[in-house]
Design a protein that fits this description.
single chain; alpha+beta; Glutaredoxin; Rossmann fold; 5 domains; seven-stranded mixed beta sheet; five-stranded mixed beta sheet; 15 helices; 38% helix
């Protein structure tokens, strides 16, 4: 048998057996695969299964992919195969409630006309002049339509969410009603500072995809009964009548999601510029917060040296740590709340702090929190902030943990027990309110969580944080539709290098004082040198005394020496990180192959010793 296995015939038999095994598995188990990704990106989530099994009426999907036009696009064809395999899995789980049609829209065919009728994106191929279709259209029994115009490769990490969102939209005949009151240009508009038109925020576009959004005026005096959830974003100009309407809405059982801010950096309204860079950009919900048992200071911003982001300072300059722009990692989110449990990272900018008031009747459940390396600072410090590292000057963490977002539930009373201007309060108390508060609005702006690319007129968002998912999760939770929550945050988001960031923070704490001292010495030397040069008579600059020339040369030498020391200090900031990179390279390039080689040699030696002992 051993001679047969090592002979040419034996090797041929093994090759034929291997080919037969692959053919059999491809035929009998076409969808079988092993998902080894950390977020299980290739495995259907429980939320998707719930959406598919809860389908009451049939949904029909039309998957268009141009086979002939894509014959030379290997990466795209592999992605198309993955899309089709996932759709087949959806069809299997739906158990007859989902019908899938795979269509190859040949040029000038009825299938191509139908793809265009659905509104799918046709991408011209410059090599052949053909049109490439790679999109999905869905319909329900009421002839409602939802489409994905084109499956962009950049959004592969969000594939399951996009498919599940489309099916969920077709399954919901009536979308939840969201009432929106905002003081920010979420729907797009004109930037008064630049005079240029601005597109809608990606968060707003996602909001419209899933919910029926009704925009309300900032002076509205009543919230309609059909509103399922009231969404407030930077409510800084609300009238007393609107505050009273919100109070009554919450007490009668309405759900509220409110984003307030001590400094909305995205507020470029004329009012904000007239009132001042800091004061005109604050929003509050007083006196409602006090009635709900929440403390909030609209003039204070949270700084956190542990969560501070690294931001660029321009070409040729080292990045700066901005301890007012924060990366809230998973460990600082509530693991028990369905809104934040699936999220990985959120980014905030000049956020405020929420806290429960003593004697409050409501339950204050934190959703997003700071580290204990935090402190509060006046929002006025951000008015003309040029270098974010100046926030580190005099910073002292007080060991307290601040809360950026919280859920409020429990008993509450009205903030207007006597009513308002002849209007009696219909609801004076409630046994249980359901409110979510967030002390930041900038997290919803595109620059804080998503990069948008233009793809043949189609806006392709590429998220690098979970900010948009946080808002949609909260609205899903408050409106009673949570199936998409477990699907939404399984995308391919960037992961922070926690070890590298910790090394950088430690280096900053060691060298920050030296850098400041040297910077001050450099400024003082330059000032003295300038004073000495300006004190000279311009007509006698060439007739300096030896003492004056020596003084100037001494200042120039001192200036050069200080600049050299400053460069050395800034180099040391990244020395530990460079050493870590070197160690990782040594491990990957030399140590791991050496260990594998040693393991193979030991295995070979052990096998040889066993054969020798067996013969003896």
């Amino acid at each position: 048998m051993k001679r047969l296995m090592y002979s040419g015939t034996g090797l041929l038999v093994l090759l034929l057996a291997f080919i037969g095994f692959n053919i059999a598995t491809n035929s009998l188990l076409p969808g079988a695969r092993l998902d080894l990704t950390e977020q299980k990106l290739y495995t259907i989530s429980d939320g998707t299964r719930q959406i598919l099994t809860d389908l009451e009426e049939p949904v029909t999907l039309y998957f268009f992919f141009s086979e002939g036009a894509s014959k030379d696009l290997v990466v795209l064809r592999n992605y198309a195969r993955r899309v089709e395999e996932m759709l087949r899995e959806y069809e299997r789980v739906a158990d007859g409630k989902l019908r899938l049609h795979v269509i190859d829209p040949q040029p000038f065919s009825e299938a191509e006309d139908r793809a265009a009728e659905f509104g799918l994106q046709a991408v011209p191929l410059t090599q052949t002049g053909e049109q490439l279709y790679f999109g999905l259209a869905g319909t329900n029994e009421l002839a409602q339509r939802e489409i994905i115009p084109f499956f962009a490769l950049e959004q592969e990490g969000l594939l399951e969410y996009e498919l599940s969102r489309l099916i969920n939209s077709l399954a919901q005949i009536e979308k939840p009603q969201i009432g929106l009151i905002t003081g920010l240009p979420m729907a797009g508009g004109m930037n008064p500072m630049t005079g240029q038109a601005t597109p809608p925020w990606v968060a707003y576009e996602q909001l419209q995809q899933i919910f029926d959004v009704q925009e309300l005026d900032t002076d509205t005096d009543a919230i309609a009964e059909e509103i399922d959830v009231l969404l407030l974003v930077h409510p800084k100009t609300l009238s007393e009548a609107t505050l009273f309407a919100i109070d009554q809405f919450v007490l009668r059982g309405g759900k509220l999601l409110a984003f307030i801010d001590p400094l909305a950096e995205s507020d470029h309204s004329m009012e904000a510029m007239m009132d001042g860079m800091a004061d005109g950009k604050a929003s509050d919900l007083a006196p409602l917060l006090g009635a709900w048992g929440v403390g909030y200071d609209p003039e204070q911003v949270v700084l956190d040296s542990r969560l501070g982001m690294s931001v660029g300072r321009g070409q040729g300059q080292l990045p700066a740590r901005h301890i007012g722009w924060l990366e809230v990692e998973k460990q600082f989110m509530s693991e028990d709340d369905t809104v934040t449990a699936p999220l990985q990272i959120l980014t905030l900018a000049s956020a405020g702090a929420l806290k429960p008031l003593e004697g409050a009747t409501t339950r204050f459940e934190p959703l997003l929190s700071s580290s204990n390396h935090s402190a509060m600072t006046p929002s006025s410090r951000f008015s003309r902030l040029q270098d974010p590292e100046t926030l580190l000057n005099g910073f002292r963490a007080d060991g307290e943990i601040r809360h950026f977002a919280a859920r409020l539930q429990g008993e509450a009373k009205t903030a207007y027990p006597d009513g308002l201007e002849g209007r009696a309060a219909e609801y004076t108390e409630a046994a249980n309110i359901n409110v979510m508060l967030v002390a930041d609005t900038d997290l919803l702006t595109d620059r804080m969580w998503v990069h948008v690319q233009d793809f043949f007129g189609q806006r392709i968002p590429q998220p690098w944080a979970d900010n948009g998912g946080f808002m949609i999760n909260a609205l899903d939770n408050l409106s009673g539709s949570e199936a998409l929550i477990s699907v939404r945050s399984r995308g391919d988001f960037s992961r922070p290098f926690t070890v590298v960031e910790e090394l950088q923070r430690q280096a900053e704490s060691r060298y920050r004082a030296s850098e400041l001292r040297l910077q001050q010495q450099l400024e003082e030397t330059e000032r003295q040198l300038l004073e000495l040069q300006q004190s000279q008579d311009p007509s006698q600059l060439t007739e300096l005394s030896a003492e004056q020339e020596a003084a100037i040369q001494r200042f120039l030498d001192e200036k050069l020496e200080i600049r050299k020391q400053l460069r050395d200090v800034r180099y040391q900031l990244n020395a530990d990180i460079e050493q870590l990179g070197t160690r990782l390279k040594v491990i990957n390039i030399a140590l791991v192959p050496a260990l594998l080689t040693l393991g193979v040699l030991l295995w070979w030696l052990a096998a040889r010793l066993r054969r020798r002992s067996a013969r003896s």
